[in-house]
């Protein structure tokens, strides 16, 4: 017997379609079959409801399940990052497959986690390079620099997250205690396969340069491990963060002016040593507050020699630009010719940051002039007080003007007009003496 029924259906865009008429149960069953199997081409899921029948596309498909060929495969790989894939993406019926690019390992669902493993042959090559790089030192220095993976795992409790000191795009740093009871900071690099050559080069730089350096204001490298897929470096542990951490705190007051002047002097000593006191001079190439570590007594130690370069025979050879924008010598940027004066320029910017507590990337005018330009202009006009940190104005004396003048001379556009780091060191030592402080 016919019964009055209302048949409700919802299409893929949630538009309500109401159909009223005389339907018997058999016709309803046939309609459900047609909608579920024919219109959705077996890609719909029939779903019974109290008042009627609805159909939806299977997982991985989208469209109108009430139309022939209405459910279409979603192309996840077209927007793979929205679907949590940061590696190679392969479309599959109703789904997709995500994997690391060929030759890399890691988790493709985590950004930048697919890395190029340093295979054993590469580690043997690194061993050779390390041996050659430290040939001028004691015969056993290359072997003494090597630390087993087992010891580093033991030192960090298998790289326990509780031992994590920090991290970023280039890797993670863990605190550990070696068997000789040295407290170390172990850098576990994250090598991006797109920059593999540069990052391996930076690792080799650190291992080649730091063992030859012995200076109280330069961080020491205790050793490296070549047994892991990605090489590990173990540095002297410096406990009190970076100069950047202390300068750019939320608190209204930061390091005292006396500490800032002393820290500047200590950094200048380290750079003067690198440029002129060792047999083959070294250019650091990335001087900035975040690469200056401070210990519990706020003593400065220069770190991160990954971008550093030897300068044998004072030859100025063109090189790929490396460094941090804001601290980068503009002449080096445009000519690609690296000299010691490039470090002098970066040190001048660091002095500006000590004087102002402002990052060099910060722009202060509608014309887009940034801190360095503003600082030089205000200094030349005799109005530098407008940009100085109020704490510096309060605590400093006449030596503040002298440090500002020194910073401006370090940042001269023409490299030949800048002082050497040895000259900078002498000026800062003299300024410390006027404060009754014995230079460190």
UniProtKB/TrEMBL annotation:
Q: What are the protein's UniProt keywords?
A: ATP-binding, Kinase, Nucleotide-binding, Serine/threonine-protein kinase, Transferase
Keyword Kinase recorded? yes
Q: Name one GO cellular component term.
A: plasma membrane
Q: List the Pfam families hit by this protein, alphabetically.
A: PK_Tyr_Ser-Thr
Please verify whether the record's keywords include Transferase.
yes
Q: Which GO terms describe its biological process?
A: cell surface receptor signaling pathway
Give one GO term, molecular function aspect: ATP binding
The UniProt family comment states: Belongs to the protein kinase superfamily.
PANTHER family, from UniProt? PROTEIN KINASE DOMAIN-CONTAINING PROTEIN, WALL-ASSOCIATED RECEPTOR KINASE-LIKE 21
Name of the protein this chain belongs to: Wall-associated receptor kinase 3
């Amino acid at each position: 017997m016919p019964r009055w029924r209302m048949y409700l259906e919802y299409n893929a865009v949630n538009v309500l379609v109401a159909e009223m008429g005389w339907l018997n149960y058999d016709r309803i069953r046939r309609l459900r079959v047609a909608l579920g199997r024919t219109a959705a081409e077996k890609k719909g899921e029939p779903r019974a409801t109290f008042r009627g029948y609805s159909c939806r596309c299977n997982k991985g498909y989208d469209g109108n399940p009430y139309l022939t060929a209405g459910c279409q495969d979603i192309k996840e790989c077209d927007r793979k990052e929205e679907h949590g894939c940061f590696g190679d993406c392969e479309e599959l019926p109703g789904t997709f497959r995500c994997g690391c690019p060929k030759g890399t390992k890691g988790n493709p669902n985590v950004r930048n986690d697919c890395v190029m493993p340093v295979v054993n042959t590469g580690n043997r090559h690194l061993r050779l390079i390390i041996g050659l790089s430290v040939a001028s030192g004691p015969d056993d220095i290359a072997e003494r620099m090597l630390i087993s993976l087992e010891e580093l795992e033991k030192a960090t409790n298998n790289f326990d997250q509780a031992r994590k000191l920090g991290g970023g795009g280039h890797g993670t740093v863990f605190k550990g205690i070696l068997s000789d009871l040295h407290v170390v900071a172990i850098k576990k690099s994250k090598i991006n396969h797109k920059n593999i050559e540069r990052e391996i080069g930076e690792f080799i730089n650190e291992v080649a340069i730091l063992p030859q350096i012995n200076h109280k204001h330069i961080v020491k490298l205790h050793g490296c491990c070549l047994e892991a897929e990605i090489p590990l470096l173990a540095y002297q542990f410096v406990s009190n963060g970076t100069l950047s951490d202390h300068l750019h705190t939320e608190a209204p007051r930061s390091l005292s002016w006396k500490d800032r002047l002393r820290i500047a002097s200590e950094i200048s000593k380290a750079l003067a040593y690198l440029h002129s006191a060792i047999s083959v001079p070294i250019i650091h190439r990335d001087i900035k507050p975040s690469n200056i570590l401070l210990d519990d007594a706020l003593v400065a130690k220069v770190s991160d020699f990954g971008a550093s370069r030897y300068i044998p025979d004072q030859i100025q050879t063109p090189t790929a630009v490396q460094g941090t924008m804001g601290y980068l010598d503009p002449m080096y940027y445009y000519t690609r010719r690296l000299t010691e004066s490039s470090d002098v320029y970066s040190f001048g910017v660091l002095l500006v940051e000590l004087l102002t507590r402002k990052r060099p990337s910060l722009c202060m005018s509608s014309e887009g002039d940034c801190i360095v330009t503003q600082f030089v202009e205000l200094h030349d006009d005799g109005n530098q007080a407008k940009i100085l940190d109020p704490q510096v104005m309060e605590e400093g004396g006449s030596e503040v003007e002298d440090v500002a003048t020194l910073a401006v001379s370090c940042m001269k556009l023409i490299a030949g007009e800048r002082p050497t780091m040895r000259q900078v060191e002498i000026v800062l030592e003299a300024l410390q003496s006027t404060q009754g402080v014995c230079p460190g």
